[in-house]
Here is the input.
Amino acid sequence: MNSHPYLRAYLAGIFVPTLVLPILLTVFIVVRIVLKAPVPIEQGLIFPMAVVPLLFGLWNMLWLCSHKRTHLPIGVHGAILPLLMAPTGALVATCLGVLEFGPAGVVWFHACAVPYALIAPCFLAVLAGYYLVWKYIVGFLNRVLGIA
Here is the structure.
């Protein structure tokens, strides 16, 4: 099965965010409606719901293209993605007025303050999560689809 390996890589890449993001959106909307949370989180999820699956698919295609030269394990390749997504997302959120950087931390939607001391461990947890998702789920799908 050597036909269309990049299409299969794209489809394997979009699998996880396509399943997870609608579930997260549902949870956030229920929390906002039931618990009356003042933060309009669903507004901040609509754009990532379109961009993140696209990035996962393109990132998996890039791994397929570069793997023969770099021999980078897929888990490490996947863990690099948040290093690109976080600064880009922060820049876009800042430009849109959704995120503000203050002296003690960041403020989302002018309502939710997050101290800098909490951001670093959370980001490390995200890196570990991406590593595991890419190593075990996307890697498994790549093997099933015959592109790994």
Notes: The helical segments are 5-34, 41-70, 74-95, 116-144. The radius of gyration is 17 Å. The chain is about 75% helix and 5% strand.
